User: What shape does this take?
Amino acid sequence: MAMTRLQMNWIAVKHGSTDITHVNSVQVSKGGSLESYSADGDQYPTVILHAMSKPRVSVTSGDIANLQGFAEGTVGTFVATHKDAKLQTGGDLIYTVVNAVVENVEGSGTHAQIGSGTMTMLAYSADGTTSPISIARA
Assistant: This one.
C-alpha cells in the first residue's frame, strides 16, 4: 500500500541524547517573517520581502518531570518522527532541528485531568544562511 501523505502520532522524539516520551504534540515552525515597505503617497506596501526567519519548536508531553529536566539554554539536535497515518513505508516525516536551544519549559494541570508540560526551543543557523530545520521521508 502506498503512503497516505497524512501524519498521525509521534515517535522517536528527542533533544540531544534525551528521549522525550508521552508526546501529545510537536510543532515545528520555520519562523518566517516578512518586511513590507511603502513611502511617499503609498497607501499599500509596494515591496514585501522575506527578511528573517526565527525557527521555533515546541513539544508537549505528559511526562512533565522529563521536560523539567532540560535547562534553559541547553543546545542540542531535536529529532521527531511524525508517523504515516496508516503506518505505510515511506510515509513518515522525520524532522531534524540542529542547534535547538531550550527557551522555556512550562508544566500545567487541571483538576481531574492529566497534566502536561511544554518545552519551547529556538534554533539558529551555523552559517547564517542554512536553515537548521530539515525534513525527510522514511
Q: What stands out?
A: The mean pLDDT is 97. The two ends are 15 Å apart (CA to CA). The domain at 7-36+44-137 is CATH 2.30.110 (Pnp Oxidase; Chain A). DSSP finds one helix and ten strands in the chain.
